[in-house]
Amino acid sequence: xxxxxxxxxxxxxxxxxxxxxxxxxxxxxxxxxxxxxxxxxxxxxxxxxxxxxxxxxxxxxxxxxxxxxxxxxxxxxxxxxxxxxxxxxxxxxxxxxxxxxxxxxxxxxxxxxxxxxxxxxxxxxxxxxxxxxxxxxxxxxxxxxxxxxxxxxxxxxxxxxxxxxxxxxxxxxxxxxxxxxxxxxxxxxxxxxxxxxxxxxxxxxxxxxxxxxxxxxxxxxxxxxxxxxxxxxxxxxxxxxxxxxxxxxxxxxxxxxxxxxxxxxxxxxxxxxxxxxxxxxxxxxxxxxxxxxxxxxxxxxxxxxxxxxxxxxxxxxxxxxxxxxxxxxxxxxxxxxxxxxxxxxxxxxxxxxxxxxxxxxxxxxxxxxxxxxxxxxxxxxxxxxxxxxxxxxxxxxxxxxxxxxxxxxxxxxxxxxxxxxxxxxxxxxxxxxxxxxxxxxxxxxxxxxxxxxxxxxxxxxxxxxxxxxxxxxxxxxxxxxxxxxxxxxxxxxxxxxxxxxxxxxxxxxxxxxxxxxxxxxxxxxxxxxxxxxxxxxxxxxxxx
Length: 544
Ligand code: NOJ
Description:
The structure is a single chain. By secondary structure, the chain is of the alpha/beta class. It folds into 2 domains: 27-125 and 201-470, TIM Barrel (Alpha-Beta Barrel), CATH 3.20.20; 482-543, Immunoglobulin-like (Sandwich), CATH 2.60.40. The chain has helices at 52-65, 100-112, 131-138, 200-216, 260-272, 289-293, 307-310, 316-331, 349-352, 356-371, 401-405, 449-452, 459-472, and strands spanning 32-36, 69-72, 76-77, 89-93, 116-121, 151-152, 175-177, 183-185, 220-223, 279-282, 303-304, 338-340, 376-380, 483-484, 491-496, 499-504, 510-513, 517-521, 531-534, 538-543. The radius of gyration is 23 Å and the shape is globular. The protein starts with 31 loop residues before the first strand and ends with a strand.
């Protein structure tokens, strides 16, 4: 709510296009990076699937929103067994998403608007249609074309049992048998065979792939499964079932092995060889903030996603602890922390926080808290609209491989991937002229960009105001610490340069002394007589 509020600093934030390309040093340390799930952002050719021309046409919206950079999910040639995270050719744009010329145009237009572009790189596995895997299948047991992957003989009298007890993240065994009796490893779907990073050709090829996109002008890479490329020698059994529940809580023989760091160090050297601060961002699941910090040591990657914050419940004490632990861990290696609430793999946070009006109130407050913290912030497309998870998708439209592998029990990731609404009416609410690959709820008309623009009570205008203030107060994203103030149970009160932030996680209002001049609030709130009734599930920013 900003209608009755004076801004902290008067005057407009500089238009993105006015920002000189390299004026900011270490731009990534405090950057707001907007995640575009390409299939679901904007459809330029009316086939019901989002594409690169669609994204390009909407870049002005992102610049105006206040993003510093855009992260594009994979748009490479792919059979789409896992939404493009199964790459058949890393240097080709899938016709579903456009052409290489479209990628080039997109990067140029983004740069003209002052937006940087980060693309996804998928090095842990290829598609089963990749030329290397086709060659591997055509080869014999022990043949050289099988050495780029993890092929092994099975156990049991006739090799009829998988080589070890590893389970796929998407459910079922992590091994599939080929007709000649060998088994190959796939930590995800069978259509995503894991590469063997001990093979020199794998390393050399990925160096070339990174250079290909850097030469085209991208500003960095989000590295998929950055924690999984190296497996423990001998591929030992784990001895437990339900291994998916162990991911991120302990080191596994296939995740967070120390050997991955040498690869990231070599990629850092490669990135540093290019002008303009190109970055690497690890999608890594590690058991502790301390182990996460290893990925962002000075000679490794620039950022790693902080999933500990994303996983935290709506609980003041827990949130404070995660914030402190996250900052302490990254500060120890001189890296910025990242903050993320939603992405294309998890239930949208409006719904995680309870859904409905309460979930939305909490989501709005959490976004303001996140944007008041030092470090870099990731915004997942549609969260600025307050979109909830779509929980009632019919089974016959679902495409997430984890839905099929786990018999619909877990990993329901389609509900956060529903194409976003741009207009209150029209075909697929402005997503495109040809419908949308997943059905959008009718209630999304009122959540569209068009419906929310200009409404000061809307979530979109709340994000716009918060992002503008964050840019006007550069100290907000910078620095390494927050100063916690005394606060009643269930309330967070923190001070940052020029700003105080109070969050009430309780379901009832809390009376507090006013710490400064109110500049932004997630719910209507008016200070009286030096006090403020902090509404339930709300956040307020104060100029101090
Ligand atoms: C993480 C990606 O975010 C997810 O969507 C994908 O399924 C897995 N990695 C496998 O590539």
